[in-house]
Amino acid sequence: MKVKRYFVSILLITVLNICACGRMGTMSFMNGGGQKIADETFKALIEAVEAEDSETIKGMFAEDALSQIDDIDSEMNAFIDFYQGNMESWDDWGGASLMTSSGGGKGYYQQIEGYYKITTSEEKYRMIFLLNQSAPEKSHEGIYEIGIIKEDIYDEKRQEFGSDVPGLYIVE
Q: How many CB atoms lie within 10 A of CB 18?
């Protein structure tokens, strides 16, 4: 009887700790923590694109993502060439989203998806990015994907917007 009570107590404590940790992470995100990270990442990315600073953009990517991209330099150059003008305004397009998943028993991944509308001095765009905020392996932390599309074709081509493969994507 004592052994059964002991195991039930341990199980209850473990479940409560897991729930509390998960809830704290969600509450932190809901209170603006995740959106703040997404906004800061977005601003740094736009600053680097407008400065045509491909090394900074490359540095924002996760090492694991870079190892999966065949020609990151060509993708960055095309992305920088596609983006025209200087940002005049932006909107978080409904806010960032957070996905938490198990890392196959190695720990948990938290991935932030940032969604943005951008108005530059020359064009209007929509941009998305996927950012691993925390991962069991440091090489998996950073941006995995960045996508951009001109606002005027978004409704027509939104199904093509985004991918599950690391890289920079332009939908035209």
A: 10
pLDDT band at 39 (very low <50, low <70, confident <90, very high): very high
CA distance 20 to 16: 6
DSSP 143: E
More confident position, 64 or 165: 64
Residue 169 neighbours by CB under 8 Å, 6+ apart: 145, 146, 147, 148, 161, 162, 163
CA distances to 1, 27, 96, 98 from 145, in Å: 54, 26, 15, 15
The angle, 0 to 180 degrees and rounded to 10, between the axes of the packed helices 33-50 and 2-30 is 40
Phi, psi of 162 (to 5 degrees): 105, 160
Lookup: tokens for 102: 């198990």
> Can you tell me the distance from the alpha carbon of 143 to that of 49, in angstroms, rounded to the nearest whole number?
15
Give this prediction's pTM.
Answer: 0.77
Structure token digits, residue 139: 């090489």
pLDDT at res. 32: 56
DSSP code per residue over 94-126: T--EEEEEE-TTS-EEEEEEEEEEEEESS-EEE
Please say if the pLDDT value at position 19 is more than 90: no
Average pLDDT over residues 36-48: 96
Q: Could you give the CA distance from residue 151 to residue 124 in angstroms, rounded to a whole number?
A: 5
